[in-house]
Amino acid sequence: MMSKSAVFLPVLLLCSLVAQAGTAVTYSSQDKSYFSVQVPDSWQVNVGSDMDSSQVPEGEIPPPRVITLVPDDDSALWFGVWVPVYLHSIEAAQEYLVSLDEFLVDDPVLKKTEDVNLNDMPARYFTGKGTKEGNPAHFFVMLFEISEESVGIAIYIGAPETTEKHIEELRGIMKSITPAGA
Questions:
Q1: C-alpha span between 157 and 159 (Å, rounded)
Q2: What is the 3-state secondary structure (H, E, C) of 71-139?
Q3: How many whole angstroms separate alpha carbon 97 and alpha carbon 101?
Q4: pTM of the entire predicted model
């Protein structure tokens, strides 16, 4: 006969693993699911809305839906993830990021760039530092090819002390990005 502690310990371990797992959020836009990402418990999620393409002026591209994540501790950080449906390669996404320079960080200094595999998706990441509103900031960008037709973008921007405080959660979020249906 098994002792109560022999049954209780595995149940306790399983519950602690589940409690740390977070919540899966699936990114979809224009009636198509692209990827899912695990959001740590206690982080706030804001899911932007899709803009009706018929409401966009002729010749303009509708802005992509953006999912933003922030910890529930007043940390100075922003994490956003989205799919610009008009981009079809990592190279095109990299060019697109250049157009966002004024919105991301000022005076960026690139520390590292590397092509990697992110859950069976070709990906490229960039890390560096710069300033945001006059304050030091770290940034991390992951471009990931979901399919031959779509590329996702995940960006983290935050103060150095915030990066240090949340580094494991941020790594976990980035590593959790998986194609829809995987």
A1: 7
A2: ECCCCCEEEEEECCCCCCCHHHHHHHHHHCHHHCCEEEEEEEEEEEEECCEEEEEEEEEEEECCEEEEE
A3: 7
A4: 0.81
Residues in the chain: 182
Query: Which amino acid, one-letter code, is at 135?
Result: N
Angle at 60 between CA 57 and CA 61, to 5 degrees: 120
Best CA proximity match to 63, nearest among 20, 106, 30, 111: 30
Q: Tens digit of pLDDT for each residue in 100-147? A: 877 889 999 999 999 999 999 999 999 999 999 999 999 999 999 999
Find how far residue 159's CA is from the centre of its chain: 17
Rounded distance, CA 29 to CA 83, Å?
8
Which is nearest to 146 in space by CA: 114, 119, 121?
Answer: 121
Q: Which amino acid is at 137?
A: A
- pLDDT tens for residues 60-82? 777 788 898 999 888 888 999 99
**% of the chain at pLDDT higher than 70:** 82
Higher pLDDT pick, 77 / 9: 77
pLDDT of residue 6: 38
As beta bridge partners, residue 65 has none
Q: Alpha-carbon distance 120 to 146, whole Å?
A: 9
